[in-house]
Amino acid sequence: MSLFPFRRPRPASGEPSAAAIESATPRRWGRWALAVLIVAGLHVGAVRWIEHNRQPMHTPPGAPPVQVELLTPKPIAPPAPTPPAPAPAKPAAPPKPAAPAPAPAPAQKPAPAAAPVLTAATPQPDAPAAASGVAASAPAQQAASPASQTAAQTASQPATASGDKFSVPPTGELRYDTLVNGMMNQTGTIHWSNDGQHYEMVVSIPLPFVGPYVYSSKGHIDGFGIAPEQYTEQRGRRAADIAIFNRETKQIVYTKTPQNQPLADGAQDRFSVVMQLASLVRGAPDKYKPGVTRQFSVADNDSNEIWPIETVGDETVQARGGFTTARHFTRLPRKDGDRRKLDIWLAPSIGWLPVRILQTEPNGMQIELLWAGKLEAPPTEGHDVAPGTQAASEESAPAVPVEPPEPAADKP
């Protein structure tokens, strides 16, 4: 028994004391906490660094380019007048032999009289030569009269050099592969007819289990280009909705809604605007550079609004016939929250016709038309239209120049 019962026994050699263990425990937990904080800080810094370096340093591809020019509808510029073909020169008639001089009359005593008055019947010196000169110059004056009249008419017309150059695509049956949400569907068609005075456009897109979507537009061609008179929209088996463009009252009337809206100059419907854009680009392709935005007044089946269509730039499109270069146009949002999109690609290899059309519905469904024909320009060119006039059909017979009438022969 120890003499000091209340004395704490000394630990064996090599074993830590309880006080040492108690003091070491907080230090150990502190070191672990510090290590955890350091690792967490390193992770947070690494995540921030990765996120910072993943941000693009340029404008993302989906964002529209910077707007550099805004175009509004304006009258169409007339095509450059072609000088009339010169009339073929006719050989000059040989001069007629001079009549023999009459025999001298017997001398008589002259009576005093007033000075003779010269009339057209009075023979003058060099009268045959003067008459032949007048006769020879008459055809030249008559041949020059059409040219002078054309120049006078051109000078009297108002200057419209600032108008839009316009070339309507020729008539054709356009075939497209249709895709719904990226899945290949049946072949669709765009029937386009243009005689220089009137046009008709019928777009047929087959959809499984729903029925074909058919969009029809017909009208004429005026001083602002394509001018719809009636637009019909039929989706599947539903009844057709019609919009009527009343040019007399300057109103757009709908069958889907009782409201009427004013009809603006150059107004289009949802599908004629595609050919209107193609006609403008065909007339002046160099004018539509990336960033150029053009406004169109477009009517749907129940409303009319402004569509800003912007030029994105030239891109490569893969169609059934291979790859081709096309100019990409996109419709900018019409209002906040606008989820419907429209993208159009026009290809110069097929005469600036649409090689691809992509429409995105508000519910996210995508309907795509992709060119299924040959990647070559149509055999005929479009019609250049002047304001207030109607272009003639290319198949019509060429104008025959009218020759001036021959000078009447002198009576004996």
UniProtKB/TrEMBL annotation:
Annotated region (Disordered), positions in chain: 1-20, 56-173, 377-412
Highest taxon above the source species: Bacteria
Compositionally biased tracts (Low complexity): 110-162, 391-400
Bias (Pro residues): 75-109, 401-412
Pfam families in UniProt: DUF3108 (PF11306)
Protein name: PROLIN-rich signal peptide protein
